[in-house]
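Duplicate of #3305? Posting structure anyway:
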């Protein structure tokens, strides 16, 4: 019997446990830090550490770790035990406030993109009390208290994904509160927050088949593979009945996630055979990001236990759907309400439309930057591949909302209530569909009733990067609008009129970003080009946006990333991208040389005696020659672009060989088997 309410957060040092284990004064102080962003009172750290240690020991944890998110996009941990010698031949347990607040892992091997010179190579971790500590259990009694932390250099330079995320949340909170004040919302100390629900797609394949594919093992994707005759054409997998072995995995995955406080909610089969999705309930942004990182990790380790390999790569198999991570994002105001939910009165709706228009401005102004946050070698195969949004960023609003936006644009300058125009703050908006009714799967950035869904994020990526940019560009828009309105009101202009004019002006300037049609078509790409929307087709191009003055100005203005921090990220991501492509190229060449070519030779030899199959042997010989030439060309390729091109070329002949070399000789399991055996 599983009772989710009992399991939930069993392994989390959450508010309830804190209330139980901390003195009143300490609990209140910590609660203030967590809920209203007040800086931590270092005086309480010892007591919190002692309570955490006591709780962790009672749950069987022997070690603790500062758990952080370096620029590799994964999570990192270095364990320390709680033990300390008592110098009488025994030990006692210890965990001080200092150890809780700051760690100093010898982390010189993490990428810093040149930000740290070796003599100050140390990185420091600092406790993020807004994301609760949790215990991670391994096999054979391994149990470690994981304390979510940021990771910085000696001078506080961000070396991780979380630091800029927290900075961007702070700015978004400030700008949201400021905008709220213009609408008469004043909630004292309360902060505003971004919320995130990240739907996670993944593949599960049999571990033995995985073990027989060096390409999957080395690079996370198949570098070769003839398309299976039956794959996803019949759409018979999507939302289909879940096979028992997969269902068992999913059930245990949910339980393990619940124990860690991750609100796993939805599970289902995805479009491609062997592809699945997990969606959690949304949470405060940084907690949700941490939980997504945990989810990916638990998926991978648990899959092994169930005899599967979990593939988080964006495109493990060519010719069928890849995996994404739909990033559902919204803003909770200081009043605790979702500000992307249409309201019940003119005043609330004026605020709602202001936020929609602010997003239009933000996304149009920084479409290229937003695109760059989802740039990765894996995602390059997915974006624009007719199953995922194109690399062109546009916004989908749906008919009704688009109509309202158009009315605001048209009525901006006039005060008269003729022509049925809506006047912000005076008239009620027509009822907008609540919830998830508007469906346009082909849009990268869609309004879905009470949130925006950014669908271009890759399944294997940390959600942090995309949300840093989202928070920052929306903050900039809010800042712009508030500045205008504050000035207009100070100059004696009526608020609603000033608002209407401001929004109309923004819509005029930025409406080119709105597109409700089919984003998968060629026609849209042509239209987008006409509108001047950027189409950054690959990672190499997209990363260059990080080096522009516009990006530097944005990040420095809001103290999200200094120029040095930004440059270090650019260097790190570029290097990671180039290294990955080089690993793919090397693996492809190895597989061709040591597996494909010998297997083909065997096949040719076996067939040679029989004249009836001469046409087949001739074809094999020709393809073999092409393969050999292809390997040579690949080994000579000296840039990511050239390597990618050479890999494609080599793949053509190898996949053609797979279609004629006898199955019992072919050295790797094929797509048909991998995608259908679970
Ligand atoms: P669909 O696949 O139809 O988009 P799902 O239920 O799979 O819907 O996922 C929707 C995601 O959006 C869930 O993670 C959900 O919690 C999240 N979500 C809903 N409301 C909000 C909100 N206000 N802020 C952020 N995320 C939200
Ligand atoms: Mg969705």
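Output from current build:
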């Amino acid at each position: 019997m599983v009772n989710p309410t009992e399991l939930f957060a069993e392994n989390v040092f959450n508010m309830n446990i804190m209330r139980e284990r901390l003195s009143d004064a300490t609990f209140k102080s910590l609660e203030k830090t967590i809920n209203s962003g007040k800086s931590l009172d270092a005086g309480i750290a010892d007591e919190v550490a002692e309570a955490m240690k006591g709780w962790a020991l009672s749950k069987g944890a022997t070690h603790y770790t500062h758990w952080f998110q370096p620029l590799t996009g994964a999570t990192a941990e270095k364990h320390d035990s709680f033990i300390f010698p008592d110098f009488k031949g025994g030990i006692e347990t210890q965990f001080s406030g200092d150890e809780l607040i700051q760690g100093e892992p010898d982390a010189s091997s993490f990428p810093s993109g040149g930000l740290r010179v070796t003599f100050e190579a140390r990185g420091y971790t600092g406790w993020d009390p807004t994301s609760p500590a949790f215990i991670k259990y391994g096999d054979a009694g391994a149990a470690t208290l994981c304390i979510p932390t940021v990771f910085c250099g000696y001078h506080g330079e961000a070396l991780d994904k979380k630091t800029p995320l927290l900075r961007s949340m702070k700015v978004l909170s400030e700008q949201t509160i400021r905008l709220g004040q213009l609408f008469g919302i004043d909630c004292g100390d309360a902060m505003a927050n971004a919320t995130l629900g990240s739907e996670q797609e993944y593949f599960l394949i049999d571990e033995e088949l995985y073990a027989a594919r060096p390409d999957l093992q080395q690079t996370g994707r198949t570098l070769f593979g003839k398309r299976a005759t039956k794959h996803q054409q019949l759409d018979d997998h999507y939302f289909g009945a879940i096979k028992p072995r997969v269902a068992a995995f999913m059930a245990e995955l949910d339980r393990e996630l619940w124990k860690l406080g991750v609100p796993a909610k939805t599970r289902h089969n995805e479009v491609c055979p062997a592809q699945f999705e997990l969606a959690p309930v949304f949470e405060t942004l940084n907690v949700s990001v941490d939980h997504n990182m945990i989810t990916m990790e638990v998926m991978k380790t648990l899959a092994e236990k169930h005899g599967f390999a979990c593939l988080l790569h964006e495109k493990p198999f060519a010719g069928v759907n890849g995996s994404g991570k739909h990033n559902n994002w919204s803003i909770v105001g200081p009043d605790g309400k979702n500000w992307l939910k249409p309201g019940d009165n003119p005043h609330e709706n004026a605020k709602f439309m202001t936020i929609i228009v602010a997003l239009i401005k933000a996304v149009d102004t920084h479409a290229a930057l937003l695109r760059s946050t989802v740039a990765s070698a894996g995602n390059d195969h997915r974006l624009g591949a007719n199953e995922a949004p194109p690399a062109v960023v546009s916004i989908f609003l749906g008919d009704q909302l688009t109509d309202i936006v158009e009315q605001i644009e048209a009525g901006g300058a006039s005060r008269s209530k003729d022509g049925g125009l809506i006047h912000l703050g005076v008239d009620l908006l027509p009822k907008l569909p609540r919830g998830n009714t508007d469906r346009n799967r082909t849009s990268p950035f869609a309004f879905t009733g009470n949130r925006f869904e950014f669908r271009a994020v890759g399944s294997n990526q940390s959600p942090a990067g995309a949300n840093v940019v989202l928070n920052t560009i929306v903050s900039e828009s809010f800042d712009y609008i508030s500045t205008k309105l504050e000035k207009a009101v100070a100059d004696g202009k009526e608020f609603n009129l000033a608002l209407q004019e401001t929004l109309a002006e923004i819509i005029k300037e930025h409406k080119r970003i709105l597109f409700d049609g089919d984003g998968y078509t060629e026609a849209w790409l042509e239209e987008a080009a006409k509108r001047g929307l950027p189409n950054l087709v690959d990672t190499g191009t997209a990363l260059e946006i990080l080096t522009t003055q516009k990006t530097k100005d944005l990040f420095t203005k809001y103290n999200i990333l200094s120029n040095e921090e930004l440059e270090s990220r650019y260097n790190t991501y570029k290097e990671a991208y180039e290294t990955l492509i080089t690993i793919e190229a090397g693996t492809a060449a190895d597989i061709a040389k040591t597996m494909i070519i010998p297997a083909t030779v065997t096949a040719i030899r076996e067939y040679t005696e029989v004249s009836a199959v001469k046409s087949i042997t001739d074809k094999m010989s020709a393809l073999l020659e092409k393969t050999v030439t292809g390997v040579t060309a690949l080994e000579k390729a000296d840039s990511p672009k050239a390597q990618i091109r050479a890999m494609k070329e080599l793949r053509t002949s190898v996949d053609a060989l797979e279609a004629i070399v006898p199955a019992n000789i072919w050295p790797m399991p094929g797509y048909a088997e991998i995608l259908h055996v679970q």
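Confirmed duplicate; merging threads. The chain is about 45% helix and 15% strand. Residues 563-608 form the longest helix (46 residues).
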